[in-house]
Design brief:
It contains 14 helices and 14 strands. By secondary structure, it is of the alpha/beta class. Strand 1, helix 1 and strand 2 form a beta-alpha-beta unit. Helix 2 packs parallel to helix 3 and helix 11 crosses helix 12. The chain starts with 7 loop residues before the first strand and ends with a strand.
């Protein structure tokens, strides 16, 4: 036992030309890793990642692991045994590129279903296959699961994760990459919709991401796909206690702006990130009105569809008095992305209106406009009507803007 007090073991290896490495070296490395922790009563975190090689580890040496993350390669089925052996104490599990067969081994072992009573966080990345789940109405694999993140195809043909953890799940994150040559994209979203329809009563944070190759756009985006995306968004409406909602990915900007703005759970949100969705001033005002507890907002600001920038002084004053002053939002931080299509004056006006609506605002981040130029423009506008009426209230904006 070389490291009797070890609590974290990380094994990361990368070989550019594995043909130059003798197989005996692989065996020595495997023995070295096992020998390092042999006899250790419990490993707090075991990280294993080998690029371009497939090492053999003895599952018998890894029986008391509470946190495990690894990259799966064909031939490394022993990892399923390592996972199963620590099923009673495993709290965190992260797997890169797991096959369907590998996930089936983790769920069912060799002859019966396996429960992970202590597992609180599960992360699966690079999944490309669906697992044919053996349906057992009463069996719960993950009774304590609090966080679930899936980056790839949602792998479970039936909602195995929706059994038992509908009370415990607090964070759900999904990131799908849609490829013309990949799995059925509509089925991908359909499986997620099924998962969401399970209604996790304590869900507090949802992270959604859609990514696609622009060259594949015409291949998979059609009316039926739009309808599936909208169904997916609608399935979120039953969650009225979310504290954090985040959408990213270029296709969301096409599919769901109205879905987010009409989301029925806005009144409980503290954090909203919609950097891929185009919004105008009136959209932001609507969000602030429907989300009185919102503290942090990230959005993609555009001047298209907005008439505010063309209003005369009297009309703008009336708009501020009727639509902005009354908001009294609790917003503390805002980040504006992709502002290169808007000029400095337009962004400055938006921030002044935001400053009027949000007396607690203390952090403003913009992505493309030089903050010195923007600060100067804000200070200049606050000397002109009707903004000069709010100069004292908004003077802080010239000091909190950054990028």
């Amino acid at each position: 036992m070389l490291a009797p007090n070890a609590r974290r073991v990380a094994t990361v290896m990368q070989f550019s030309d594995r043909t130059q490495i003798d197989h005996a070296v692989f065996a020595d490395i495997s023995k070295g890793v096992a020998g390092l922790i042999s006899g250790v009563p419990e490993i707090g975190h075991f990280h294993f990642c080998c690029h371009g090689v497939s090492l053999q580890l003895d599952p018998a040496q890894f029986t008391r692991i509470t946190r495990l993350d690894y990259g799966y390669r064909p031939g490394q089925d022993y990892f399923a045994n390592i996972v199963c052996q620590s099923s009673s104490i495993l709290k965190y599990l992260s797997i890169l590129n797991p096959s369907a067969a590998h996930l089936e081994q983790i769920l069912y072992g060799t002859d019966s279903s396996i429960a992970y009573p202590s597992l609180e966080e599960l992360s699966l990345s690079g999944t490309t296959e669906s697992v044919e789940v053996r349906f057992e109405a009463e069996f719960v694999h993950f009774p304590s699961l609090r966080k679930l993140f899936v980056h790839g195809l949602y792998p479970f043909a039936r909602s195995v994760l929706a059994k038992g953890d509908n009370v415990t799940l607090e964070q759900l994150g999904v990131s799908f990459q849609f490829l013309a040559s990949g799995p059925s994209n509509t089925n991908n979203l359909g499986l997620l919709t099924t998962l969401l329809s399970s209604r996790f009563v304590n869900l507090q944070a949802f992270f959604g991401s859609l990514v696609y190759n622009p060259s594949d756009l015409e291949t998979f985006i059609d009316e039926s796909y739009d309808n599936t995306v909208q169904t997916f968004i609608n399935s979120l409406h039953c969650y009225k206690s979310l504290r954090k909602l985040e959408f990213s990915g270029s296709y969301f900007s096409h599919a769901i702006p109205n879905g987010v703005l009409s989301y029925k759970g806005l009144d409980s949100l503290r954090i909203l990130k919609i950097e891929s969705i185009e919004v105008v001033i009136s959209d932001v005002a609507l969000i602030l009105r429907k989300a009185p507890l919102l503290e942090s907002l990230r959005c993609h600001l555009t001047h298209r569809r907005s008439i505010v920038y063309s209003l005369g002084t009297d009309q703008l004053r009336k708009y501020i008095e009727t639509d902005i002053v009354s908001l009294k939002s609790k917003l503390v931080a805002v980040k504006i992305t992709n502002t290169n299509e808007m000029n400095c004056t337009q962004i400055a006006k938006f921030l002044i209106l935001l400053g009027i609506a949000c007396p607690l605002l203390s952090s403003v981040v913009t992505m493309t406009i030089g903050y010195d130029v923007l600060r100067t423009k804000i200070s200049s506008l606050l000397t002109t009507s009707p903004f000069d009426e709010y100069a004292e209230k908004c003077s802080r904006l010239a000091t909190i803007v950054s990028k």
